[in-house]
Amino acid sequence: xxxxxxxxxxxxxxxxxxFGGLVAVDDLTFSAQRGEITALIGPNGAxxxxxxxxxxGFYRPTSGQIQAxxxxxxxxxxxxMPGHRICEEANVARTFQNxxxxxxxxxxxxxxxxxxxxxxxxxxxxxxxxLGLPSYARAERVAVDLAKHWLQRVGLLHRADxxxxxxxxxxxxxxxxxxxxxxxxxxxxxDEPAAGLNPRESRxxxxxxxxxxxxNGLSIVLIEHDMGVVMEISDRIVVLDYGxxxxxxxxxxxxxNPAVIAAYxxxxxxxxxxxxxxxxx
Amino acid sequence: MEYFVQQLINGVTLGSIYGLIAIGYTxxxxxxxxxxxxxxxxxxxxSFTALLLFLLIGLTAASPLIVIVLAIVGVLIVAMALTAVWxxxxxxxxxxxxxxxxxxxxxxxxxxxxxxLSNMVQIAQxxxxxxxxxxxxxxxxxxxxxxxSNGFAAVVSYRQLIIVGVTIALMALFTWIITSTPLGxxxxxxxxxxxxxALTGVDVDRTISLTFxxxxxxxxxxxxxxxxxxxxxxxxxxxxxxxxxxxxxxxxGIGSLPGAMLGGLLIGLIEVFWAGYVGSEYKxxxxxxxxxxxxxxxxxxxLGRPEIExx
Lengths: 281, 311
What we know:
heterodimer, A: 281 residues, alpha/beta, Rossmann fold, 2 domains, six-stranded mixed β-sheet, four-stranded antiparallel β-sheet, 12 helices, 10 strands, 39% helix, globular, B: 311 residues, mainly alpha, ABC transporter involved in vitamin B12 uptake, BtuC, 74% helix, 5% strand
């Protein structure tokens, strides 16, 4: 990173997503800064996961643009790329609210699948691997080392050969993060990483995410309901309600933002001013 | 005793051929959850490709054995390659456009594809039985005598040795590909969660294509083996062998690779033993009855994993 600041790692511009008559995301614009943790919060049904699905190619947005930008300045139009290229070329990885590991495969294999393209190339699309080429053996060793590094980071190295489906819930969440990291992401999107975790696991997760931030230029965007996690680790927060952005700022700004409080308390828009005054008083 | 051993040898040979075809069914089912009913006809196309190649090479009775062996290896490789192209094309043209549509659409297309293939061969090659040139057949006859008494000898023919040997080698290779190469890992990942596999960077379409290519190549091997073993083929062998191999895949547990191999072996043995000891009229009935019985007591097949539905 010797050159000038290449700009934000993720830019969402006028994003719109409609399902028939339902407007899930409406004219949403925000950006995520490089090397920071950006949190996306909002009440249930605010459209947070829909935004993620648009970013990772799960949905084609009805309107608007999403752009990922690497440190070297290269940009990738995520709204127009198929899922596997978003991961491979734009280096955007994600995890899911409901965990989606390859349950029947071992932990190590889960992390090796995440390095599929690298290994596929090294193995000469399997043919070289069949012939036992040394370049393939080397690539496989590097891949296994990276997988082990991440298993260590998330504290699961001792279970490397167990089936992923046999892990307890909290461990599965961390494994999902490890798998996402094995794809070598520039931007990591976490959908409710702390959901279902007990307080101790939640603290461990905080530590893990904070230690990952900025490492090799990694940026994180996360959706989270646990305000303890959000306020503690995020650098910036974007608040959604009914598919629109209602606030954006640092944790301390958001904490005192009346529109946010109103949205969370379920107050009508017209009453926001009233709530605001009540807070000031 | 000799009679029993002889039937055992025949059964294992036939079972090997079924097993090779059954792998194609089970792999495709595993990865996209559809029964590729055209797979039996892909096997038939592979067999015809091999026959044409043998005729092209034009072996004579005077060709030395080494030439014949080389010819078989060459035919095997070329037939695998050409049939693999068929498998790829069928997936690309007939199945991929329908992915994501309702469940029965690819199934119906597969049946259509099966009819297209068998009719194509019927028109191009005629409906009559086609024979391997007698020169080649004669050179391949002969074998080892395993045991003998009362004037009856149990014999393993060279052809049977080739078939079982190639099958074992291919299954070992194949098991290795599935368990420890990036391609195999990607296939298993797609099998469990296609969307998630795509999000970790796996090109799902290409992985599915390669699955069809591998399945077709293995079916081609079975086709060459069938041709070398029986020496006569027609456009209809795909249907019969396809149904048997499908039964084998279901018997072993569809989606399970060892299951497909085991199922193929069992179906082959039952058919041969029934024909040998009871009579050849009802050998298919015996095979299909066994399937029915197994499915009543183990609906997931012999080696299949039961589907657990969480409520």
